Amino acid sequence: MENSEVDYSKKWFVMAAVACEVFLATIDGSIVNIALDTLVSELHQPLAVVEWVVLAYLLVISTFMLSVGRLADMLGKKKLFAAGLATFTIGSLLCGLSPDIYWLIASRVIQAVGASMNMALSTAIVTEAFPNSERGKALGIIGLFVSIGVIAGPTLGGIILQHLTWHWLFFVNLPIGVIGFILVLMFVPNRHPGGGQRFDFGGAGTLFIALVSLLLALSFLQVGGFSGWVIGALLLVAVVTLIVFLRLE
Questions:
Q1: 0.70 exceeded by the pTM?
Q2: Residue 67 pLDDT
Q3: pLDDT in tens, 188-222
């Protein structure tokens, strides 16, 4: 049975807030791909370095998302979701202001931390905002925005590069991010988590190291320019820390 005390009247505003975040996080995974040649030319760096603008974003999202759910149970979904959207928007601003490739890569890491917080919580927030009879439709809409973000990224990136500079690939996120942040504060319900919960630092830390090492090894193998012993060492670290993680858990 539905809980009669749950207020579903703001469900579509919650959907709008989550849709803003989902669209931004997914579009930023692909919008930069079309600009790699432009970044190589304007930032005077080889492609092997510029590729980390994309790789750093995907790497951080892949590793951080696994720990976000537990943090949300401890701190509350609304608080963490709002913090993630603010972090992503600030990261977008820093990306657009980047004077060199290293600033840009570091800013993309900040962006990805915010995106991972939001992507991990979007489904849970939408599920809580809609009654059982409408949750399938609501999750389908979120999936639609994911698809739109992935598809629209290269097209929007091409249009921006044709008329503006590469900095606007990131500045375009700012108004949507601000609107989404306001919607989160106004309409996402603030459900207080239960007390007495602890974060598993040992498990999260070892799994994080294992995933980072594995993804770095695969990335280095793909882009080239790294000796075999570096890749082998990263794979060894990944295996050892994964074994430690399994023992801890």
A1: yes
A2: 75
A3: 887 766 655 666 666 767 777 887 787 777 777 76
Coil vs helix vs strand at 55? helix
The answer to whether 112 and 52 have CB atoms below 8 angstroms apart is no
Burial class (CB in 10 A: 0-12, 13-18, 19+), 41: exposed
- In whole angstroms, what is the distance from residue 31 CA to residue 155 CA? 8
Residue 106 has a pLDDT of 93
> Where do the structural domains in the chain lie, given as residue ranges?
11-195, 200-249
The Cβ-side half-sphere exposure at 2, using a 13 Å CA radius, reads 14
Phi-psi region of 196 (alpha: psi -120 to 50; beta: other; left: phi over 0): left
Cα–Cα separations (whole angstroms), residue 83 to 3, 88, 111 = 28, 9, 12
> Which tokens is 209 given?
């190291």
The torsion defined by the Cα of 56, 57, 58 and 62, in degrees rounded to 10, comes to 100
**Phi, then psi, of 165 in degrees rounded to 5:** -90, 170
Determine whether domain 11-195 maps to CATH 1.20.1250.20: yes
pLDDT of 236 > 70? The answer is yes
